[in-house]
Amino acid sequence: MAYTSDCREKEEHDVVVVGAGPAGSVTARVAADHGLDVLLIDRNPEIGVPVRCAEGVSREIENYIEIDSRWVCNPIKGVITYGPEGTELVITTADDPAGYVLDRRVFDKSLARDAACAGADVRVRTRAFGVIKHNGKVCGVHVNAAGERVCITADVVVAADGVESRVARWAGIDTRLRLEDVAICAQYLMCDIEANRDYCEQYFGWDIAPGGYAWIFPKGARCANVGIGIGANHLRGRRVVEFLDSFVHDRVGGGDKLAVVYGVVPLSGPIYKTVTDGMILVGDAARHVNPFSGGGIVTAIQGGQIAGAVIAKAVRERNCTARRLREYERRWWREFGRTLYAGLKAKNYILSLSRTDFNRFFQPLNGELKLSEYTERALMKGIAKRSPKMVLSMIIRTLMP
Q1: Is the pTM of this model over 0.90?
Q2: Backbone phi, then psi, for 378, in 5-degree steps?
Q3: Residue in 335, 312, 333, 310 with CA at minimum distance from that of residue 323
Q4: Considering only Cβ atoms within 10 Å of each terminal Cβ, which end of the chain, N or C, has fewer?
Q5: What is the pLDDT of residues 1-33, one digit of tens each?
Q6: Any residues with CB less than 8 A from the CB of 62 and at least 6 apart, and which?
Q7: What is the spatial distance between Cα 113 and Cα 93, in angstroms, rounded to a whole number?
Q8: φ and ψ at 2, to 5 degrees?
Q9: For the range 387-393, what are the long-range contacts, defined as Cβ-Cβ under 8 Å and sequence gap of 24 or more?
Q10: Directed axis angle between helix 376-386 and helix 388-399, to 10°?
C-alpha cells in the first residue's frame, strides 16, 4: 500500500534499506562506503534471528568478502549427494576447504556491523508497513519503530525483505509465487549424533523429499543442521516436518534437537523487474536464489554489492528513475543471472521426469566429481558432462514454442 499522508515523526536519508539479511546489509555497507546517508532497518529484535537457512556456502564467497573465523562452524571438503537407488556422488575441489557451514546469527550480525562501521544507521524492531510515493515514484517508507510511527523519505528504497517482498508489492512489483515455484523447508539443529564432519550431505528421492531434497550439514563435533526442503505443490496435505521426522528416524537415528526452524525458498528463477522509480530489489526479494540448489548467500552478496554501487552513482547524479537504476539489472544478469536461469532449466527438467527416469538420472552421477572450484556454475557444468541427456532435453525445451 502506498501512503502519502503526513506523519508526526519524519526523517530524511539518501537510502533506506528494508531488511538486514546479507543482501540488505551489503547494499547498505557499499552505499555508505560511497558517502551516502544510509538507514538499514530490520523488523526483528535481533539481526540474524531467527535462522532460516541450512548455512552452507561455497568458497566462492571469498571472492566477495573476507572470511572471519568467528562465522565458521565447520569447514568442508565437499558435498556428497545420495541418489534414490543408492548412488553416491562425491563432489570435491582442488581447494581445501571447498566451503563452509556458517553460523548465520554471527554472520548476519557481522555484515550489519560492517554497514554500521561504514556509516550506515542500523535499527532493529523497525517494521515497514507502507511505501511513500510522489507522482508515482517511490520516495520512502512508513515504519513502526517500537510502537511509534515514523515517515522516512529517501531517494532510493531497497526492498531486502525476503520472499514475496511486501515492500516491492506496495510499490507495484508483483512478487507473488506459485506453489510449484516454492520449497517449504524445516530444519533441526541436532547434537549428539554421528555426522560426517568433512562433507555436507544431500539426499534425493521422491519418498524422502518429493520435489526437493534432505540434508545433513555438519556444525562441529557431533552437531549438524538436519533439514528438508519439499516442493510446496508436492506436500499433498502433509506437513513438511512429518517428512523431516521420517528422515531423521531413518538416516540419523538418535540425538537431541536444540532448535527447529521453518522457511520458504523461492525456486522460480530471478524475476525480470527488479527496479522501479526510486526502488531496487535485492536478495530473495529479487529471487536471486539458484533454483537447482536452493543456494542464495553468495548471489545475495554479489547483488548487494552491485546495488550499492549503482545506487551511489544514481543518488550523486540525482537521477533515481527506473531507467537509471536498470544498470543494476544489466550487471546482475551479466554476473550471475544466466547461472540462475540455467539452474531453473535444470530444476524444471529434473522435476518433469517420471519416478523411473528420476532414478535413472542419478545413475551416471555415481562416483567422484572433482571441480576446479566449487561454484554453482561449475557444479552444473560438471553434472551436465555426466548427464548429457539432461543438456539435450533442456535445449529442446528452450527452443520449443
Answers
A1: yes
A2: -65, -40
A3: 310
A4: C
A5: 554 445 668 999 999 999 999 999 999 999 999
A6: none
A7: 32
A8: -105, 130
A9: 387/361, 390/346, 390/349, 390/350, 390/361, 393/349
A10: 110
